Amino acid sequence: MGVNIGTGDVVKVCVPNYKPKSYSMSAAREGEFDITFKVYPGGRASGYLDSIAVGQSIDVFPMGKKARHPGAFVGLVAFGVGITEALPLAAIELSEAEAESVRLLWCSKSSGDTFWREWAARLAASYPGRFELVDTFTREDVPGARRGRVDAATLREVFDGVWGTLPGGENEARRGEVRFTSVGTKEMMRAFDVTLGEVGYPMPAHALLKKPGE
C-alpha cells in the first residue's frame, strides 16, 4: 500500500455508515500488514473490526504526509494504546544507524492496560544499551515503574538525565540531535508539545517526524 511505519503513516479503515478511522500499522510484511486495536464497548470502528470474520474483506486506504528527520537521541512517548504505533516505530529507529539511543516512555492508567512486553524485551536484548521502555502509571503503584503523568520533570529525568543532554550535562552540546514524537489523542499530543517547549525542545524543530513545510 505504500504505507511506512517509520514515517508515522496510517491506514484509514472505511467503517460503514461512519467516517474513516485511522489506525497505525503494527507490523508489515511482503503483501500484508497488521493493525492492532482495542475493542471498546459500543465503539463504532473497533466494534466493526471486531465483527470481521477470517476471510472477510474491508476497505482501507493509506494516508501519510510526514518525513523522518533523524537524530542521535530519540524520545518516544506513548499515551495508552498509542503504544501500537510507538513500539513499532522504536523498532524501525533502532534499525537506523543514526539512532544511538531510543527511549520509549509509556503512560498508562494501570499495568493491566499494557501488553507487548515480550516484544519490548526482545528489542532491549537485541540492542543492548540502545533501547529502554520506561513505564509511568497514573492510577497504580508498580515496582520498578514511575507513578504520575508526563510533565516537564518526567521528561528531564527519563530523557535528558540519561542522555546527559541537560544544560551542564556531558552531552549538552548535542541537544540539537535530540528528536521526539508522541502518540495519543490530538489533545494529548498538543499538550506534550507544549511541555517539550518548557524543557527546551521547541516543536517542530525537535520533531522526529515532520510534515512538509515544518
From TrEMBL:
Pfam families: FAD_binding_6, NAD_binding_1
Residue stretches making up the Flavoprotein pyridine nucleotide cytochrome reductase-like FAD-binding domain: 10-60
Keywords: FAD, Flavoprotein, Oxidoreductase
Keyword Flavoprotein attributed: yes
Cofactor: FAD
Binding annotation for FAD: Y18, K38, S46, T84
GO molecular function: FAD binding; oxidoreductase activity
Oxidoreductase FAD/NAD(P)-binding domain boundaries: 76-191
PANTHER family assigned to the protein according to its UniProt record, in alphabetical order: NADH-CYTOCHROME B5 REDUCTASE
Protein name: FAD-binding FR-type domain-containing protein
Organism: Emiliania huxleyi (strain CCMP1516)
